[in-house]
UniProtKB/TrEMBL annotation:
<dbReference type="InterPro" id="IPR001680">
    <property type="entry name" value="WD40_rpt"/>
</dbReference>
<feature type="repeat" description="WD">
    <location>
        <begin position="140"/>
        <end position="174"/>
    </location>
</feature>
<dbReference type="InterPro" id="IPR036322">
    <property type="entry name" value="WD40_repeat_dom_sf"/>
</dbReference>
<comment type="similarity">
    <text>Belongs to the WD repeat SWD2 family.</text>
</comment>
<dbReference type="GO" id="GO:0048188">
    <property type="term" value="C:Set1C/COMPASS complex"/>
</dbReference>
<dbReference type="GO" id="GO:0003682">
    <property type="term" value="F:chromatin binding"/>
</dbReference>
<keyword id="KW-0539">Nucleus</keyword>
<feature type="compositionally biased region" description="Polar residues">
    <location>
        <begin position="18"/>
        <end position="29"/>
    </location>
</feature>
<dbReference type="InterPro" id="IPR037867">
    <property type="entry name" value="Swd2/WDR82"/>
</dbReference>
<dbReference type="GO" id="GO:0016070">
    <property type="term" value="P:RNA metabolic process"/>
</dbReference>
<feature type="region of interest" description="Disordered">
    <location>
        <begin position="1"/>
        <end position="29"/>
    </location>
</feature>
<dbReference type="Pfam" id="PF00400">
    <property type="entry name" value="WD40"/>
</dbReference>
<keyword id="KW-0677">Repeat</keyword>
<dbReference type="InterPro" id="IPR015943">
    <property type="entry name" value="WD40/YVTN_repeat-like_dom_sf"/>
</dbReference>
<protein>
    <submittedName>
        <fullName>WD40 repeat-like protein</fullName>
    </submittedName>
</protein>
<keyword id="KW-0853">WD repeat</keyword>
């Protein structure tokens, strides 16, 4: 269904249904400790784009997100489509097409029937869509260059967007115009701490992570971490210059994850900014561009919504790679003065995992390059 010409409507989407079952069919219950099953995750369900007949022009997945109840998964793809999947049934449910404006960085709001996504053509507006009746609720216009990050507040209908126009906008879903703005050099990534009281902005050009008090952001950052100064040696900083892919807080609020497209990700203390570990990727990074990197339609690499994330318990970090999925145990002991931490587990899957997201409610995660894969713990492992 083409959504570009649907009539905008001011009505809000219906309230989310909280009829949540606590198991994924016959598989491991969602209440099982992540640490008990992390080594047993296996690729269980591959979704192929049956509507694409020409295998040479197969689209790529550029973002993955789950709704709050964990029952739905959405992807935005390079052929300007949005694909929605039913997690518990392991089923593709809906395809939406936005050929006029393009799609990327698709995210559920706190209502499972409404989403946000950034444009890739025509303009740089963020679009607020009701998937219930495939009508646009609102356009958020303000960025004058490509949007690089959209981060939804963990407990309210507010969100942050970052762009290549060196602007950070703060928005409320029920207001068309931005409610706050920060001007920062290359503010390409954003993230909320789990309380929603603090948000972070990552600037790869200045090698800094800035933390703001949400209620007093206009006063400037409450913390400014110069990541080069936090490195124990020049060699440890090598991957900081390769492009940044992900910024995330752990669910306990203690750690910050900075993903790069180089040979390592970085784990920092969320309060002091001190380096806790360099998460080494033995096979190197994926082939996707980092957030904010220049690209065009004739050969530049696609970007993504991020190739690494925390597991819901905050203990484990998962990352895609050119093959397989890597898992680090943050309670492990880093080696040497450079604090290098090797993967605790390698979850085998021969496809590249260029985009990765963990379900917030169930013990499952999804990875993708050109095809979406659902991963579940193997109950027989």
């Amino acid at each position: 269904m083409d959504i570009d010409d649907t009539v905008s409507t001011p009505t809000a989407p219906p309230a989310p249904t909280l009829n949540i079952q606590r198991t994924l069919g016959p598989n491991v219950p969602s209440t099982t400790k992540v640490s008990d099953v992390m080594a047993n995750f296996r690729p269980m369900k591959l979704f192929k784009r049956e509507d694409v007949k020409d295998t040479k022009s197969k689209p790529s997945v550029i973002s993955i997100d789950f709704d709050d109840p964990g029952e739905l998964c959405i992807t935005s793809e390079s052929d300007e489509t949005l694909m929605i999947y039913n997690v518990k049934e392991g089923r593709h449910d809906k395809k939406l097409l936005s050929q006029k404006y393009g799609v990327k960085l698709a995210k559920f709001t706190h209502h499972s029937s409404s989403i946000l996504y950034a444009s890739t053509k025509e303009n740089d507006a963020i679009r607020y869509l009701s998937t219930h009746n495939t009508s646009f609720i609102r356009y958020f216009e303000g960025h004058t260059a490509s949007v690089t990050s959209i981060s939804l507040h963990p407990g309210a209908d507010n969100f942050i967007s970052c762009g290549r126009d060196d602007a950070v906008h703060l928005w409320a879903l029920n207001v068309k115009n931005w409610v706050g703005k920060l001007n920062i050099t290359t503010p390409f990534l954003s993230a909320w701490d789990p309380s929603g009281n603090v948000f972070g902005i990552a600037s790869p050009w200045s090698f800094t992570i800035l933390l703001y008090d949400y209620k007093n952001y206009a006063k400037g950052p409450i913390s400014e971490f110069d990541l080069v100064d936090k490195m124990p040696s020049p060699r440890a900083a090598d991957n900081l210059a390769t492009g940044w892919t992900t910024l995330a807080f752990s669910n306990d609020g203690k750690n910050i994850l900075l993903g790069t497209r180089g040979n390592a990700h970085y784990l920092f203390d969320a309060f002091t900014g001190d380096l806790k570990a360099i998460l080494r990727k033995p096979e190197g990074g994926t082939r996707r561009a980092a957030a904010g990197e220049a690209r065009n339609e004739t050969g530049r690499r696609l970007d993504s919504s991020g190739d690494c994330c925390f597991a819901p318990d905050g203990r484990y970090v998962l990352s895609g790679s050119r093959k397989d999925v890597l898992v680090w145990d943050t309670l492990g002991s880093p080696a040497g003065d450079d604090k290098v931490l090797e993967p605790a587990y390698v979850l085998e899957e021969k496809r590249e995992a260029a985009v990765l997201a963990f379900n917030p409610r169930f013990n499952m995660f999804a990875s993708a390059d050109q095809e979406l894969m659902f991963w579940l713990p193997d109950p027989h492992a």
